[in-house]
Amino acid sequence: MTIDKTMSNEEYHRKLKGISSTRIKDVIARNVGHAMWKAEPENNHTTDALIRGTAMHSAILTPDRFGDEIIPMIDCDSLAVKNGDEAKDWIRERNKTVPKDEKMKLTYKTVDELYAAVAEAGGPRQAADIEREYRARHIGRTIVSKELYDESLEIGRAVRSHPTSAALLTHGEPEVSMWVERDMVVDTGQGPRAVSLTLKVRPDWYDNELRVRVAGIPPKRLILSVKTSRDASQGKFSRDAANMLYYVSESYYVDVVSAATGTDPSEWMVMWLVVDTSGEFQDRIQSIAHYYLSDEEIDAGRWRYEKALDAIAVARLYEAHPVMGGYPWQAQPAKLPRHIHYGGE
After folding, report:
1. How far apart, in Å, are the Cα atoms of 255 and each of 85, 178, 270?
2. DSSP 8-state code for residue 73
3. 2-67+148-325 sits in which CATH class?
4. Tens digits of per-residue pLDDT, 239-269?
5. Which residues does residue 268 pair with via DSSP β-bridges, in sequence order?
6. What pLDDT is recorded for position 344?
7. Structure pTM?
8. Cα–Cα distance between 103 and 101 in angstroms, integer?
9. Gap between the Cα atoms of 36 and 41, Å rounded
10. Predicted local confidence at residue 252, as pLDDT
11. C-alpha dihedral over 132, 134, 136, 139, to 10 degrees?
12. DSSP states along 119-152
């Protein structure tokens, strides 16, 4: 069992080999073969949702590092040459201030050659070139739109001002990498076989002290996950937590974190800090909700992730036979939805 408080998010996702809660959900949603394919770095692509989540998490969980990690995109269009006429106007103005032998011509074979000449002389460049150079200067930082940058800062301030959020984030640590080895025995149909799996997690926030009190429940340790939603109402988010398998991830976190810290799983509370991003509130602080899982719901998630681990373990034993990690060999009944209507008008 290992806890690493210095490992970066990049190292955790791309270098630390192990089974994450995301892979568990991929197995449940489809199968082991698909989950392992998605685990390869070249098959993981940055999406708008991922960028948004990175900005929000940084503003909420690590506001002291936000400026180092997140940077707004500049308005490249306002700095760029707009068209050929504008480029030539710049040349004419320049030619008024330089010696004759340094004057630039106004005629070029193509507009691209014109733009290149203007840029080389220190004039305005094309928007794509400005953006490319800007990104090159800020490698290692997440570049977001100015709107998302401002929204993230606003939400971060609101969360830190919310009485419940502020209390939860007063103690604990963000984004700590943890992993444990799980020795399993699986039935292959030809007798039991042993296999070892590395289970890894990186909770958004965790507090390893028994200090969280909710609704008369004895003090517990805390695992906190940050989510955003266009509708953070209890009913809508509860459906999302079920349909998107959030509860499975949290159950997985409980067991890996407790194993890594040498604590009892029953001592941990799982809670979501949910930010409603619909913008339909008079004040940002009104858009923040908190929900926690019951022990029964954690047990339900545990049952599902354990089944997924069994499937991964079997597939690991039969890596030479890739079909073992895919869909079933045999033909299966389609099992159409119950609401379909056969025959009649």
Report:
1. 65, 11, 11
2. P
3. alpha beta
4. 999 999 999 999 999 999 999 999 999 999 9
5. 221
6. 47
7. 0.84
8. 6
9. 10
10. 98
11. -130
12. HHTT----HHHHHHHHHHHTTTSEEE-HHHHHHH
Pairwise CA distance, residues 270 & 227, whole Å: 13
Taking the C-alpha atoms of residue 35 and residue 26, their distance in angstroms, rounded to an integer, is 5
Q: Distance between CA 178 and CA 204 in Å, rounded?
A: 12
Q: Which residue has the tokens 């103005």?
A: 93
Which tokens sit at 219? Answer: 């003090």
- 309 in Cβ contact with 184 (< 8 Å): yes
Type of residue at 104: M
User: What three-state secondary structure class fits 70?
Assistant: strand
φ, ψ of residue 96 to 5 degrees: the values are: -70, -20
Cβ atoms of 179 and 201 within 8 Å: the answer is: yes
What pLDDT sits at residue 309? Answer: 93
Scan for tokens 């199968």, then name that residue: 31
| Rg of the chain on CA atoms, in Å | 27
Residue the block writes with tokens 């082991």:
32
CB 241 within 8 A of CB 229: no
Q: Supply φ then ψ for residue 173, to 5 degrees.
A: -140, 145
Residues 6 or more apart whose CB falls under 8 angstroms from that of 312 comprise 19, 23, 27, 32, 35, 197
What are the tokens at 295? 């022990």
Average pLDDT, the chain: 90
Q: Which parts of the chain sit beneath pLDDT 70? A: 1, 188, 319-325, 329, 341-345
